[in-house]
Automatic annotation (TrEMBL):
Positions of the Beta-lactamase-related domain: 26-413
A Pfam family that the UniProt record links to this protein: Abhydrolase_3
Transmembrane segments: none
Alphabetical list of InterPro entries matching this protein: AB_hydrolase_3, AB_hydrolase_fold, Beta-lactam-related, Beta-lactam/transpept-like, Diverse_Enzym_Activities
Domain of life from the UniProt record: Eukaryota
Listed name of the protein: Beta-lactamase family protein
Secretion signal, residue range per the UniProt entry: none
Any GO molecular function: hydrolase activity
Domain Alpha/beta hydrolase fold-3 per the UniProt entry, residue ranges: 438-542
Organism whose genome encodes this protein: Aspergillus arachidicola
């Protein structure tokens, strides 16, 4: 991969970036993007937008950002320097407990099925390698096929902003992950027994403490003496100078509705006047640095060049050390970062995977950062390292191709879609929500469609009746014009919804909800696509307990359901969750034959029976229907789709309907494209009636 960009490419990239930061209501107030090669040459750099939404100052390459968890890379380099010298040892738990007796005595936060908290002794000692990899030794319980998702129980140190248990335990006082005070960051329990799984948290802050105690100087002094000074960096620090604070980028907050405002800085402690010398102040090795992205690029270039800074010739790490840092330390945990990360503090982080990626891909973990296992479609090599910062900053280092970059913004909460979308275009990485079939997006784009996706309350916290109430409420909301009003805030002026051309699409449980809409409001729906829908729910598959592996996962214990209900019965119903967050519970409900216990058995809840009742009243109408299903579907039997189509054809022969049964398990259509024969045939029928092409052939 060449690091040389043509003038046309540079101009195009700058235009793409500027589109996100321009206009009266920019999607991103300001950002900086810098790309570097292994020779230390910054071959692309651009500052766009303003220093702050309400600021008259333009963003420049000299602006200073809170780089948050991008600090972890610096701390890991300091640690590995001491490992090279034999001062620190990666796998010596006794050394860790000697340097940090607090880690010998740290307790483990536990919660009973009744929701009560207690602190228990830890059963295993902690090593430096465990802290660097956020694990405390990983145990893989089992894997889902074909997605290879690993189902595990949390362990290790956590962050209060994304660990619900830790956040709940700390209240009413609470834990502030970014107060900058040692008591907040270090004086917290493990969130589970060591030896269970990857758990993102304050482990790197403890690594920083160990570096300080082993080197007998503060982490700030160490960074300046052993890293920044030797390679000529002057503007990355835990404690910004007066000049750096004068160039500080503003912090922003995006509301749930997408509205941006300037907010007080989240990490204020290092920015305030202090009577304490900096060398005596607490240095957050996991998230505490401020700096200029252009200078951070020089650290990336050093890693690309096997530990030697290419401009100064100073070696800060040996090549073999860099190689070890970029070696997967937990290869038995292939899906840890794409597991759903529920947010305990939505103002700080969206509920999303740590590293969203295509479900066909897997990721590893080096010594403080994520590793890609496969080459990306855009050419980023397998084995590339990458990580991020809470305020939506992202870096990567592709050592094989000799290219790295950092994308810097200052927006909360983490996981900002506007930043991710811009970053995808600029860096070539992709954001694929787990299990989302690309053909849906491609089809919508090809037809100029706008996707509107509703949330609804989930089983088992509520019943099926309440689920359908939510689906009905969404439909009323949509028909009342509310969707169009929301659209005006994000779409070009004058964009309108065409209520005469409506297509409803649903997958799995969404197929059940889509079918309900088709039965309830056929006069307002032109066509409907149901992918492996849940339709025939009275079958033994849903009502009886027997061995029924789902996508390769053996039967879950019935106790999982009861434990969940004991903790959540009195809580607010859940309206949205990423599937990995609730898979064990969902599988247990089906495998133990308890689905109708939570859905209910009212005939209106069961699509075949509702269709029969409507037919008895002479009121069967239904949109043009396309169903497809995998013959070997182990999560939702294909027999339900076959039964519903057969019933529809007998009760309403006038309805246009197609059923395709294909080889494959649940989600078999993930790699299907618009030219896949069976999909192309079904979509051609759908397009005719959705877009009413027989009435207006010129409409595309």
């Amino acid at each position: 991969m060449s690091s040389q960009l043509s003038p046309e490419t540079i101009s195009s990239l700058r235009t793409i970036i500027d589109k996100t930061t321009s206009g009266a209501s920019p999607s991103i107030p300001g950002l900086v993007y810098c790309a570097v090669n292994r020779e230390g040459e910054v071959f692309f750099s651009h500052a766009s937008g303003k220093r702050g939404l309400d600021s008259p100052d333009p963003m420049t390459l000299d602006n200073v950002f809170w780089i948050a968890s991008c600090t972890k890379l610096i701390t890991s380099i300091a640690c590995m320097q001491l490992v090279e010298q034999g001062i620190l040892k990666l796998d010596d738990a006794d050394q860790v407990e000697t340097l940090a007796p607090e880690l010998r005595d740290v307790r483990v936060l536990e919660r009973t099925p009744k929701g009560q908290y207690g602190l228990a002794p830890k059963k295993r000692s902690i090593t430096l390698r465990m802290l660097l990899t956020h694990t405390c030794k990983v145990l893989t319980l089992y894997k889902l096929k074909p997605t290879a998702l690993t189902l595990l129980t949390p362990a290790g140190f956590g962050y209060a902003f994304d660990d619900l248990k830790l956040c709940d335990w700390a209240r009413p006082v609470g834990l502030d992950d970014f107060s900058g005070h040692e008591a907040d960051v270090l004086h917290r329990p493990l969130v589970n027994q060591p030896g269970i799984r990857f758990q993102y948290g304050v482990g790197m802050d403890w690594v920083g403490v160990l570096v300080e105690r082993a080197a007998h100087i503060s982490l700030e002094e160490y960074f300046q003496m052993k890293i920044w000074g030797p390679i000529g960096i002057r503007n990355i620090t835990f404690f910004p100078t007066t000049d750096m604070k004068a160039d500080l980028a503003y912090m922003h907050q995006r509301s749930e509705r997408g509205h941006l405002t300037v907010r007080d800085h989240l990490y204020r402690y290092p920015l305030l006047p202090s009577g304490t010398p900096d060398v005596k102040r607490f240095c957050m090795g996991g998230a505490g640095c401020f700096g200029k992205p252009m200078e951070y690029c020089q650290l990336i270039a050093t890693l690309l060049n096997d530990g030697t800074h290419p401009k100064t010739g100073v070696k800060i790490l040996r090549p073999e050390t860099v190689k070890e840092m970029f070696t997967d330390q937990i290869p038995d945990l292939p899906r840890y970062c794409n597991d759903f990360a529920p947010s305990a503090k939505p103002l700080l982080a969206n509920s999303c995977p740590l590293v969203p990626c295509d479900v066909t891909l897997t990721e590893g973990w080096g010594l403080s950062f994520s590793l890609s296992h496969q080459e990306s479609p855009t050419g980023r090599a397998a084995g590339s390292g990458f990580w991020e910062g809470l305020a939506n900053l992202f870096w990567f280092a592709d050592r094989e191709n000799g290219i790295g970059a950092i994308f810097a913004s200052q927006i909360l909460p983490y996981g900002d879609l506007h930043v991710l979308n811009c970053m995808e275009v600029v860096t070539g990485s992709s954001l694929y929500p787990p299990w989302f079939s690309d053909w849906i997006l491609a089809y919508a784009l090809a037809k100029g469609a706008i996707i509107i996706s509703p949330d609804y309350r989930l089983l088992p916290e509520v019943s099926g009746r309440e689920v359908l109430e939510d689906v009905d409420d969404f439909w009323k909301w949509f028909r009342a014009g509310n969707a169009e009003r929301c659209l005006q805030s994000v779409a070009p002026m004058g964009t309108k919804l065409d209520y005469e051309r409506v297509l409803v699409v649903g997958e799995s449980a969404g197929g059940y909800c889509a079918t309900h809409l088709g039965l309830s409001y056929p006069e307002h729906i032109n066509a409907l696509i149901a992918a492996y829908p849940m339709l025939d729910l009275r079958t033994p598959f849903y009502t009886e307990a027997y061995p029924k592996p789902i996508v390769g996962v053996p039967n879950m214990a019935n106790q999982i359901i009861d434990d969940h209900l004991a903790v959540t019965s009195a809580r607010t119903p859940i309206t949205a969750a990423d599937p990995p967050d609730r898979l064990q519970l969902a599988f247990a409900i089906v495998q133990n034959g308890r689905f109708l216990e939570f859905l209910g058995q009212d005939r209106r809840l069961l699509p075949p029976e509702r269709l029969e009742d409507l037919a008895a009243l002479g009121r069967v109408r239904f949109p043009t229907l396309f169903i497809f299903h995998g013959e070997q579907d182990s999560a939702v039997p294909a027999s339900g789709s076959k039964k519903f189509i057969q019933l529809l054809r007998s009760k309403a022969p006038h309805v246009k309907a197609k059923l395709y049964i294909q080889n494959g398990d649940h989600g078999f259509d993930f790699d299907a494209g618009l030219n896949t024969p069976w999909l192309k045939d079904g979509l051609e029928m759908i397009s005719q009636d959705w877009l009413r092409l027989h009435e207006k052939p010129s409409l595309r």
